[in-house]
Amino acid sequence: MKNIIIFGAPGSGKGTYSDEIVKRYNMGHISTGDVLRGEIKNGTELGKIAKGYIDQGQLIPDDLMIDILAKVYDSHEEGRGVIFDGFPRTIAQAEALKQMLTQRGHDLGMMIELVVDEQTLMERLLRRAEIEGRADDNEETIRKRFAVYHQKTEPLAQWFEQEGIRHTFTWKGSKELMLEEIFKGIDAEN
Ligand code: AMP
pTM of this prediction? Predict the structure, then answer.
């Protein structure tokens, strides 16, 4: 299985679709947000640093993230393929990911971009706030996360385009419809 990078704004469904892809293709899953929330829960040094950024809707510094990612990646079984969910979020992270994979004789694989309008994103995140109670799912922090996404992460789509691995899926009102299209896209690449 090729690696997959799932890409999109906060609330675009990266975690939800990753779970479905993992089940269907038996891949590994690296969610950097989940890794960081785990560190916070365990009260580690890294967790303490991460909390300050996450609560403000800001990104954790690239060098720290790149370090964490390489360690988590190396803990996964080789050859099965991994979904990167929430990473990379900056051009520096993308360049570092490419370098790390190349050093190991692996490829970036394919990038799956989820495009969802901002009103739907906000509604979803506010609903998630009620269900999961994530500290960064309040309207003020969500707005900051959208701004950071537009400024630092969205330009990366072009980077993936240049790599020739960008596959865009636009929200069509139903998760099932999206999944069908995404699975077709993955099957065509493998
Ligand atoms: P997520 O669960 O992917 O929405 O991530 C939640 C928060 O964790 C983000 O708003 C960032 O503060 C932080 N985070 C997760 N992944 C990264 C990353 N690749 N680079 C920097 N910060 C990250």
Answer: 0.96
